[in-house]
């Protein structure tokens, strides 16, 4: 996820949206649906791993992100590697 918040977005709206994003992201982590959340060093971007049942579920989850209107998201579906031991 690459975040591009417009520079002219009202400060109050930006602060509120980022706070709601954090709350939403932490709730999904507590639910076990957002397994990993890593910052890409030096960028307002993250690498995330979700555990969802379907593309529809992921779609709904991503649309619910308060920062969604300001994000470019690339999706890479993963499946378990046959040689993985964990
Ligand atoms: O900061 C980001 O990378 C965007 C987003 C993802 C989780 C969160 O709290 O904010």
Automatic annotation (TrEMBL):
It catalyses: (S)-muconolactone = (4,5-dihydro-5-oxofuran-2-yl)-acetate. InterPro entries: Dimeric_a/b-barrel, MLI_dom, Muconolactone_d_Isoase. The keyword Ligase does not apply. Its EC number is 5.3.3.4. Residues 1-83 form the Muconolactone isomerase domain. Pathway: Aromatic compound metabolism; beta-ketoadipate pathway; 5-oxo-4,5-dihydro-2-furylacetate from catechol: step 3/3. GO terms for molecular function: muconolactone delta-isomerase activity. Keywords: Aromatic hydrocarbons catabolism, Isomerase. Pfam families: MIase. GO terms for biological process: beta-ketoadipate pathway. The keyword Isomerase applies. Belongs to the muconolactone Delta-isomerase family. Homodecamer. This is Muconolactone Delta-isomerase.
